[in-house]
Amino acid sequence: MAVILGSARLDERGNATGGQAGDQTGKEVCTEPYYVHSLGWYCMRAKDPKFAERIAEEMKAACSNNCIGYDQNQRLGIITAITKAKTMSKINWATECDCSSLVRACVMAAGMGDPGNFTTYNECTVLAATGKFEPRITVDANTVLYTGDILVTKKKGHTVVVVKGEPRTQPEEKPTGLNKTPRWTGQVVRCSLLNVRTYAGLEYPKITKWPQLARGNKVDVCDTVKAKDGSEWYYIRIDGKIYGFVNARYIERV
To answer: Which of 62, 87, 167, 201 is 20 to 30 A away from residue 232, measured at CA?
Structure first.
C-alpha cells in the first residue's frame, strides 16, 4: 500500500513567512507520497485507533481547504480557527498555520482537546504527556505506518500526519484450534522491544493489554503459526494469562 502524508509546507512563494493568508496555490497545505526525511522520523501513534482515524480525517480536510495556508509568523491562526469552527472543513475564512500548529489543530479537532503549544522540537514530549499516545518509535524500513500516525523529525524540522496507511481497525483474528497450554519457555532476543500482535503478521495491531515485550523477557510458547508472508510466528502466553503473537525470529528457547 502506498503511504500518503498530509502537512503544512511553505507559502505560495516557497518561503516560511510573509505570504498571503490562505492557500494561494493548493500546495501550501497538501498531501504527498511518503518519503524518508533527511533528519529521520519518529512516530507518535494514538492508542485509540478511532482517535487516530479522526486525526487523519482532519488532516485530509485541512489539505482540501484552501482557506488554510502557511506562515510561521501567523502559525497560531489555525488554533483560533479550529477552536471556533471545531472541524477543518468548516473553516471558511483565510487563516495560517505551520506544520506543528496544524498537527496540534488536527489533534484538537479529533476530539482530544488542546494538548498545548508545541513545535517539532518538543512535539513528541508534549503529545506523550497527554497519555493518549504510545511511546515514540523510530521509523525504519521495516516500520508499518498506520492511518493517523504522526511523524516528527528526530531534530527540529518537520511534522506530518499519515492520512493513508495500513488500517488499524481490522477485526481481530479469532485463533481457532491453537494450543493454549505452554510447550516451552522462550526469551526475547535480538531486539530491545518486541511487539505483541493480535494475530500472526505485521498487518495486525498490537494487543492492548501487553503491547510490547522487552529484551530478556520470558514467555510461554504455546503454538506456531504461519503468517500470510510465510514467516513463522509464536502464539505465546504472557504473565500466565495474556495471549498474543510474536515473530518467531526474536524468541529463543531457554
So the answer is: 167
Angle at 124 between CA 120 and CA 130, to 5 degrees: 125
Closest by CA position to 115, among listed 65, 16, 44, 28: 44
105-162 pLDDT, tens digit per residue, is 999 999 989 999 999 999 999 999 999 999 999 999 888 899 999 999 999 999 999 9
Reduced to 3 states (helix: H, G, I; strand: E, B; else coil), residue 201 is coil
Please, what is the Cα angle at 210 between 208 and 213, to 5 degrees?
A: 135
CA end-to-end distance (rounded Å), the chain: 38
What pTM did the predictor assign? 0.70
- Kindly state the cell numbers that stand for 49: 485507533
Q: Which three cell numbers stand for residue 77?
A: 491562526
Q: In the structure grid, which three cell numbers stand for residue 74, read together?
A: 501567523
E-assigned strands of 140-210? Answer: 150-153, 159-164, 184-188, 193-195
Buried b (16+ CB within 10 A) or exposed e, 130-159: eebbeebbebeeeebbbbbbbbbbeeebbb
Contact between 219 and 251 under an 8 Å Cβ cutoff? The reply is yes
d(CA 63, CA 77): 16
Asked if 105 and 113 count as a contact pair (C-beta separation under 8 A), the reply is: no
Residue 70: which H helix or E strand, with range?
Answer: strand 68-70
Q: Would you call 88 helix, strand, or coil by DSSP?
A: helix
What single-letter DSSP state applies at residue 121?
T
- What is the number of H-type helices and E-type strands within the chain? 4, 15
